[in-house]
User: Fold these one by one.
Assistant:
Number 1:
Amino acid sequence: MRSSLRHAPKAFRTARPVACGAIGAPWLQHTRRQPPSRKLSTTTPTYHNPSSPTSSSVNETEISHFSALASSWWDPHGPSRPLHLMNPLRHDFIQACLSAPSTTSPTTPQPDPNALRYLDVGCGGGIFAESAARLPTTASVTAIDPSPTILTVARAHAKRDPSLGGGKLTYLSETIESLALPAAPADRFDVVSVFEVVEHVDYPAAFLDRVGEFVRPGGWLVLSTIARTWTSWLTTNLVAEDILGVVPKGTHDWYKYINEEELRAHFAGKGGVWGTPRAMGVVFVPGFGWKEVRGSEKIGNYFLGVQRVG
Amino acid sequence: MNTAIRRRSAYVCRSCTQSLQRQLRRTYASATAQPDIYDVVCVGGGPAGLSLLTALRANPVTAHLRIALVEAQDLAKTKSWKLPPNKFSNRCSSLTPSSASFLDQIGAWSHLERDRVQAYQEMQVWDGVTGARIEFDWAPGAAPAAGTTIAYMNENLNLTSGLLKRIEELGGVSVFDNAKVEKIAYGEETEDVDLREWPVVHLSGGKQLSARLLVGADGANSPVRSFAGIEARGWDYNRHGVVATLEMEGEGWGGEHLKTAYQRFLPTGPVAMLPLPGNHCTLVWSTTPTNASRLKSLSAKDFIATVNAAFRLSPTDLEYMHTQESGQAEEYSWRLEHTPLDYRTIPQTAVGVQEGTVASFPLKLRHADTYIAERVALVGDAAHTIHPLAGQGLNQGQGDVQSLAKAIEYAVGHGQDIGVTMALEPYASERYAANHLLLGVCDKLHKLYSVGSGPLVPLRSVGLNAVNALGPLKSFFMNQAAGNGIKVF
């Protein structure tokens, strides 16, 4: 595994020179010179884009890419179909996390399983946010995305379902950095979801640190992303985007993918704030949909959930 | 599934509906009635529609959906349906053990009048032209653990009445019966909600029902299917199914506990004698429209004679009897004397026909292009109409309902909108191919056995005889018929 990965960057440089060059993150340039063993930086990077005054995890190229996809976000046969198909598995994974034995201290109050409060970071058109809000066990869903274009789509779509009215689902045009952090830890969120987002941000370590602050003690940070392996390059970049075209071209930058062990190391390095992560690997089977495959978290798409214990 | 998901509030929040209802009351005079919002609006209160609603209400995951049922007939009459023990309705269906177990699972089976349901354990199927025969009896040791019942004969009204009783017991279904669907149109956009993709069912009298999911359980000429713009393709067989409730000379050769279903393939179509409780049977005879109208015009005595002839005499004899305006009874009795018979392989003699039960309906094959559209699902006859020769029509509908209820349960448990095609896709993909295969097999069987002479005739006899000789293969077929075998699709 390791030795084959060392050879990877050269091959990918020739395969995707434009995509790599288009993203100017210094952190990423560093990675490009190195074998793709991605250490998640623990310091907040200085912001490099002079047009934006505050520090942000948001990459402008990524925003414009997803804004362009806004109109087709809810088309079940459009480019977001794989995301629609994946959505039920997100709930299965969250259920698995919530029903796992809690690793907090016995005195920590636990989330009410029948009145869960969700924060969905990078909600896009609201595929997950809407579905979470529909569950009878949900008290509220706050969904944020930096793209106002996409939020317009999300709000218009939510309006088509009367059960989503009445304040249960709130969309905010915010980044995780600009979102106000509830002062009392107990007022923070039971479930903070970051689905298919970390592979699109420039400084994932700083991003995850900030996201983690919104998780209440006893709550769960749940994310999904793609491991950086030969297989994932082949399937998500070459086959899905370039050959089959089931995922819009330019959606994924392989260099930004994060491996499961890198995330584990990240959370383990936070001095006992986080419990031991749970992971679930999933594989897309064309014509069928997503399927859980044990061990595939090391290879391609995977979910990772971690409970805030401190 | 986490049990926590199974509780709590309705899918459409009560307050939304209540506020809409308040608006409705307030604006009643101004005649712009606001539609009532439902999660499921089912048009059609037949076996498929009622089973679906029962399944949804009986399942804790889906029990909180707001459900409406729209039916043209008076359901109070159906629910209180009652016949004396020696009278049976002429519209009966065969329920496979898998359909029966589904009905049991949703709590409806116990609401049927069980002494009116007749299980049968054996089948005799033979070719009227060549006499080749397949005997569906259980070889020692070959009977499945689930029991030797191949299927249950049951009056359709017993089923719908039982389902209505179960729905009443469960509660929570808004029933609009004696209701005519005036039109189905799309909703409107207001400041708060955008229902432009929600079907709205307009009932006579002005009532309007908005549907997150509109279920078409409204039969072969489904208005819901037309609304969704889904074509149903197929052909007419130019055959009619003649039904009647018959009184037999006894309870059958095997007595009360070993009942047999009989089916003979005649060149004009199959004729079937299916056991009901006691010495009663139900007749399903597929034949030409001319023969059907002749049969309906006969006196009871001549009708019974022609039915007995259909299981005993040669197709040529029978063809002649169909040309007679009357006198079939005499014709039958002298022709029978010259026909060698193994009486054990044919049904007992019919001795009477229940008055008013001889009826007929045209046979056709139809299959909808798809079962789903945005916020629409079709089940039962709205989706497919099959030749009755295998007695699978109602069972196909039950299979549809079981599958759709499962898809809805999954969607609710995962926060999906149950009306969108993404949520309904599992239903369509699970049922379409299965139904299509069965429609095709029954159609081919009909066509194969409609041939009276020529090279096909000896070939098909080889088929029937060979199957009868091959024990394991036969058990497999029987298990398929009973729905407890290995699923091939």
Note: Residues 1-36, 42-53 of chain A have pLDDT under 50 and may be disordered.
Number 2:
Amino acid sequence: MSPDELSRCHARALTAAGRLRLPLRSRVWKGQAGEFQGAGVGSSLDFQDHRTYVPGDDPRHINWAAFARTGQYTMKLYREEVRPVVDVVLDASESMFFDPLKAARSAELFCFAVESARRSGAATTVHLVRGDFTRAVPAELVAAHRWLDEARALPATDPAAAPDLSPIPFRGNAIRVLVSDLLFAGDPEPVIRCLAARQGSPILLVPFLKSEATPEWTGNYEFVDAERKSRHPHRIEPSVLKRYKESYINHFALWKNATRRHQCRMARVACEPDLQTALFAEAIPSGALETAV
Amino acid sequence: MLTLTNPAGLWALLGIPAVLAIHFLQRQAVILPVSTLFLLEKTQRESASGRRFDRLMNSVPLWMQLLGVLLLTWLLAEPRYQKARSTQRVAIVLDSSASMTVAKEALKTKLIAALPDLQGPATALEITLLESTPGRPRLYSGSSPEDFAAALDAWQPRAGLTDPSPVLRLARSLVAREGIVVYATDTPVEAPPFDARLLSPGEPLDNVGFTGVTLIEKEGATLWQALVRNYSGNRTSRTWQLELPDGGRTEPKSFDLEPGAIITLQAAFPDKAERVRLVLSPDKFTLDDSLPMVAPKPKKLGLFSATGGAYEELSKKLQRSLAATEPVNDAATADLTILSYDPLDPVVPSGNAIVFVHDETRGGAYLKGGIVAEKHPLIDALNWQSLLVRETIQLQRRPTDSVILYQGTRPLIFLRESQATPQTPASRQLCFNFDLRLSNAATQPAFIVMLHRFAEELRAAKVAPASELLETGQAIVLAANGAADAPPLRVERVDLDGKVLDTTTLPAAARVRVEAPLDAGFLRVRQGETDLLAASVHFADTREADFVACAPADTLDEGNAVAVERHTEEDHWWRAWVLLLLLALLISWHFTREREAAKVQTPAIKPLETTP
């Protein structure tokens, strides 16, 4: 993808981030002060309760009016506002970028996740993963459109292997967004377990092509593996195509079951419609995103 | 029976391999990058490798296109179904000219081979076989190919050049407008009349043959002179030899002929031989390679002159100018008597005679009035207008006399014919009713010609043996004994050694018409023990011996479409087939469009490149 294309993708992601965001409001946060309602009492303007003054309390929050009426020190308690934590992981395998549509959608989702988290004031970390190799990159690189070069420069022992998330230092109690097409062989359990560890809230944003889900193959093909670049001659007949489609459905059904077990939210985002349409159609119903009202 | 009006439409079947090839080619391996190969390999173990050529997919467009090709072939071939009880009538007119002897076998083969095509889609074939010579009976009529072949075998073309138009007209009337008329010849004409088709197996031949023969007396010996012509455009060499009655042959003598040249062969006619045959080394056309000969001996007329001194000179001139005459000494034995009429002895003797008036006076004035000739063979086409005649005494005319020349109302020449009686035979007397010496008649060509005509008529009517050289098919009239108790005439074809080959009997009559055989040979006509004619018959038609204009031609196939339409009916379902064809094409187009649309909607799967 050219810088211009990356810039356009980023712009679309920003536009979408104005209407949609990660589901930060749906949970109670703990941690550093921020914009989101915390689990404890804080210094926000939102009044929560009254209690008796105890030494050590901030005298600025004494309710002087109540003292005048009752002669007892009463403290005004305000809601705590904390800063959420978001870890964004991008699957940088070749299958995410072999097709222009899919590459654009992958970039849009990745930028959206990062920008949505940053716009919410979340403490955002960004990780790129390819096979068994991971790299943490600064979130600022996304706005500078230099993340893709970093992603494509990642080495991998087996480019077709499932991404190994175990080396990533996920933070506790964080929303963990994985942007991946999930097109790799193997059990989804290790990936989701990593994402859900330490009270994490996994969100899977899965770009997919319609041509991957319901291809119109017929006859002889020489398929080029997007990961390994190896060629594989195949003959596609209607029965074969039917079995392929069944296998595709089963593959994602497996992921669906696994995410349900770990209370992970997964949204399969089509590459063909525009980003907002696709997100409204897929991500909102599944709870992977919420509207930024 | 099914008939294809347009068999060329079957070429449309080539569309089937074309459609298959297109379906093969359009499905060659496509190189396509994919991200889901692990899913495919998991489910498709049996398709580990592709093929160089794709197997035919069981696709709707393929079957619709194949159906379309079949329907299109069916429509283009224009199938028609045979009508019940349809008969194709064919009249074949054979060129009966002698040159067809060369092409006869080839013609027979071609005609028999062409019968199925001529019959076409009809259930029955009715053949009529005719000769181009008008008046000949039809050679065959029926529907049996075997009998037709037998009729062709028996056919002997010997005639000369004939105009086939009358027989072609007859043939067309026999088969009506719907039938087929075939003119079989060896010399094709540009446009045969009466919508006839042409079949010619002929081809140009190098032919050399006899064109004629004469026998002359020279220095007491009889010589034959035969003309030989080279009809071809090539120089050629031939030999000739004489075949004798005793079976002997002279040594072959060779000669060369330039292209188109005519030479004369000459030799002495053998003294003791009645018949000889001159033969050339043979070529393909054999009719003119053989020349039978007999020494010609015309019937002799006995002449007796009884004119006294008045017409003695005229009698001598007449005797010298007439061929084959001999003087006799009395009127009883004479065949022709030249008489002068003496008024003092007005009785004219009986018998054939030429009678002149003998007037000793100086005569009167020249006769006046127009000279008018009656229509009579003796005087036909003769000019008498310069005849000058003085008035003289006249012959005593009888009521039965036929005047053949008048001046004004005065008879100048009349013919006196007497019927035969038990005592005297029939006789004719040509009477000049004026004195020749007082006229310029002796200097008139018409006078001499008429005398010769009269003498030749008498010679022809004389019953006597004669020898002649005849041409094949030549008609001759023989004088014979026509008495009621006279024996019939036997016409015998004889061999060179005199052996009778076959005999034909004709009833006795005073004048018998005999036609020479169509094949060269020898002929003998006898009445009882009396020989009437000994003749040789040779082929001498130079037009038929010339094969330069012969050429092959075959227009039998012309007009087959009309016959097919007449004997068959169209496929009534053709409209349904057209609609079905359109439907098949629409279905094929619909499914092909769907697939193309699906490809357009998924541009992600676009081939990077394709193998050739």
Note: Chain A has a mean pLDDT of 86.
